């Protein structure tokens, strides 16, 4: 079976340590190839019978393990260069907990940036969150991997922290319930319309 592996969120971004690389090497068979994805995950093949043991060993070294395929990916975040508090590391960690690993009609990418520089390119993700001075801006329908690439549309502006997680949870649940099989999220937004999405949140 194939699993997705990524470092835990923190200041400095998704950086692998030497010990983490060693942990990954320890659980791999000699002939296994490792794929580095565009959304900062490593895809590795493991023996399905050893999944729980492998997952435990990787998590002990500070790595997160997620399913591959038609699931929502772990949060794609910036490097929190403005510091954990100012860039909103704590809310990013909470976002990651609610967005990662949900079965969805098509792989779903959620991006987060701790300031308006948006270095993690959240506006080219399916759902993008940018921390602003007075709250969070939420964008939907970005498409970065296509000859028809498109910038996400602003859904909500200056969302308070208390409302952010419920909004993102609703967007994922809505895609699960109403998305068509293999339908990209950008097309889902076009079909549903931004106005209807906004009304239901």
Automatic annotation (TrEMBL):
Native species: Cohnella silvisoli
InterPro entries xrefs: NasD-like, NO2/SO3_Rdtase_4Fe4S_dom, NO2/SO3_Rdtase_4Fe4S_sf
Top-level taxon in the UniProt lineage: Bacteria
Keyword Iron-sulfur part of the UniProt annotation: yes
Pfam families the record matches: NIR_SIR
Protein name: Nitrite reductase
Keywords: Heme, Iron, Iron-sulfur, Metal-binding, Oxidoreductase
Domain Nitrite/sulphite reductase 4Fe-4S: from-to ranges: 92-200
